[in-house]
Amino acid sequence: PRMATAKESKRVFLADKHVAFIRSLEKKKEEEFDFWVSEHLRMSAVYWGLSALKLMGRLAEEDYRGMVDWIVACQQPCGGFGGNVDHDAHLLYTLSAIQVLCLLDCLDKIDTEKVALFVAGLQQEDGSFFGDKWGEVDTRFSYCAVSCLSLLGKLDKINKEKAVSFIMKCCNFDGGFGNVPDAESHAGQTFCCIGALSILQALDHKDLDKDKLGWWLAERQVLPGGGLNGRPEKLPDVCYSWWVLTALSIIGKLDWIDKTALANFILDCQEDEGGGIADRPDDLPDVYHTFFGVAGLSLLGQLYGTEAIDPAYALPVGVLNRTLGKHAPPVATQ
Amino acid sequence: QHTSRRSPQPHMHGVRKLKTSEDKERERKAESRRKIEAYKHDTEQMFAMRKEGKLDAEALNATSKVLEGNPDFYVAWNNRREILLHLQTADETAYNEALGKELSFSEKCIAKNPKSYWVWLYRRWITMKLEGSMNWTRELGLCEKLLDLDSRNFHCWNYRREVSKRAGHVFADDLLFTEKKIKQNFSNYSAWHQRSFLLPLVYTHASDLLAELLKELELVRSALYTEPADQSGWIYHRWLTGTILAHMKQVEQESCAQGLPSSPAEFLCEELAKQQELRDLEPDSKWVIVTCVYLRLLLLSVTGTDTDTSADRAAVAADLQRLSQLDPPHAQYYAFLQH
Q: ipTM score of the complex?
């Protein structure tokens, strides 16, 4: 149903409310069942929360330095990070840990070589990556590995050509990407593949049809709401709005969708009492969708006072530059 | 994580006193605390046993409790694998019996959580351990049941491909299955997607494939007529026409079976004519119109330089303008096509 005009005129970005929502997650949530049932992905939740705060210009890094001890405690002997203390190492949470350390400018607090060896050790003969020692293959893990190693300045530890060729094996008839070869195209997996290709500087691959992919991505926009879905004939969701958006941005076709309609959709997903952003209008908010909503608004043109976000690394541009700047190759002295 | 609000439950007047919202909040908090205590107890028990190196039936049960409450608690799945691997070396008979029970446990988890990556990974692991004694045909039946419930579950489609191979099926069998799904419901992007890579795997001879792709065009046409607003058929149709064209350029016309178009241009003109018939029924469908544009652009690409293409170019321009009116959000895409 069409949104009421009253709501339309209230399409304001409620930054303060979202900041309060995120901060409240640290305190009160200990009494909420949802907090406990998501303990296995706490590392990612911290990344979502802190990134959202940073994008809104409200991350006081000093306030979170204490968190570094917890992050270090989540590192396993193998070098990888688990979702929480005592949770087994996995690529998903290893990337989140590195991203959080970048946000807090504390990468020097860990043994990055150890992390890099863990990550690189998960690459297989065909260029794919296991998520952990139990052997699940998924293009999400290709992205995690590539992004993580790049942030650590250690991308040379993997076979980049094979990483690219495996990703391209997951490219489908519609130009999109699935999680394994022959798997159906999905916006989340497409972001992972395009993001990884971008970081690997392989966007000019001969089998990557950016026009075809752009059309498939553009047709994720569902009207009249303006939100984006993850696959044909599925419901729009704020998280897909991010993944489709970043992929479009990376291939240079961000204007193939109606940006205003999308921004309005995200704003309509805001919870105006307690703050936070939900998957779609009138649902309950959570930190995951709050991050993707804020990130989406940022990518739509830095409107509403948010900082710029890098579409491939999903980190604020300032944080990314600060991190990558430390790995700048030494200038030749000859 | 997608949480819908529940609308307030209708209540009966005069039957009982309504609880105050304070009472309700207190109850909710107490219930929440109970759930948290139970949950924390289960996870702490599991971690404690694991730290002790306890890998027996009791430890297995501890992981079950955690997973029944939270199937995404991946450490519990890892712990479960460790317990089974230990059993494999300690007591082979008990191990084989346990594997059988794991299949049922896994099936219950899938039924409750058909979209959990961790749940599907565990099933794969168990079936690989069972290898020789697996009933792959039954497994295929399980996939079919799940796809009846949700024909778009890509975890299930991925798993079905692996199982199909192990059950001794060939690609042609898989193709038949996708045809069955499409005939049940044309709006099945997942099934069309499988066909996009199955067709060339089944029809390995170039001219056979071409003939089959042309038949496929008629299959998707039924979808376009039945559900013109559904994008599945249209996205597949675009791929199909582009692929047919590419194959026509490769295959020698003389050695082809009869009934195939004699040239790429003839094929495109025929297809355009068929789209025009649908357009007469659905004049404001952006999908039909953008397809006409796409076909004309392909036609222009195969037309010799000595042919007058002004009519086609004018038609494309007119259609693109119409599309910008019908589908304003994609105006920039249509501008791109104009270039």
A: 0.93
